[in-house]
Fold this sequence. Notes:
This protein has 239 residues and is mainly α.
Amino acid sequence: MENGERRLRTVDLARAVGLSTQQVRNYEDAGVLPPAARTEAGYRVFGERHREALLTYRALQPGYGAVAATRIMRAVHDGDVAGALALVDAAHAALHEERAALRTASEALEALAGRETSTPSARSGEGPHGLRIGEVAALIGVRTSALRVWEAAGLLVPGREPGTGYRVYGPADVRDARVVRTLRRSHHLFDRIRPVLDDLRRAGSSAALRAAVETRGHALTARTRAMLAGSAALDAYLE
Length: 239
C-alpha cells in the first residue's frame, strides 16, 4: 500500500461496495482482490486498489458470470494479464457461437414460414398413413439417399409401417426434413442442425420456437452489452 493512501478496514471496504465482511475475506482468498496488507495483530488492511478490484469484479459478473470473472481477476493479480485477456476472448468466442446457433434456428424458421398450415405440400403428409420416403424426397427436392443419411445421423426419426417396415413420414417428419435440407444448403454441419431440430420438437411448433428464439436473441444482446461494460471496467482497472 502506497504512503498516504487511505487505509480501509475489512468493514470499511465491505460498506463501501455493499458487501458483508465475510464476502470481502472470501474474495481476497479467491484472488478476486490483490493480497491485503496485515497489521501486527493480523488484521487485514485494504486500500483504494482493493475497492477498484471489487467494483471491476462486480462489473464483470453480469456478462461473464461469477466463475469466469473470478478467474479473470485472479489471473490479473497473479501478473498474468495475457491469460486474463485470453479468458475474456474465450467468453466472447462462446457468445459468438451462441449467436451463430441462433442464426441457424432463424434460417430454419424462415424455411418453415407459411408451410406448416398454409400450403398443400405441408398438409399432404397428414393422411392416416403419412408419406413414403420417395414421396418426401420428391416433395422437398432431395434424393432418397439424402433422407437416409440424415436419418442415420439422428436428424430424422420417421416411423415404420407395421408389417412392411417401410418408413412413414408424418407432418412433423416432413417439416424436419425441410429444415435439414435448407440448413444443409447453407452449409451447416449436422452438429449445428441437431440442436435446432431438438428445440423445434421441444417447442412443438415453429411459432413457439420463433418466440423462444426472439427471447434468446434479446438475452444475448443484453449479455453482449454487459460484457462490453465489464471489459471497459477491466481495461480501466488494468490502467
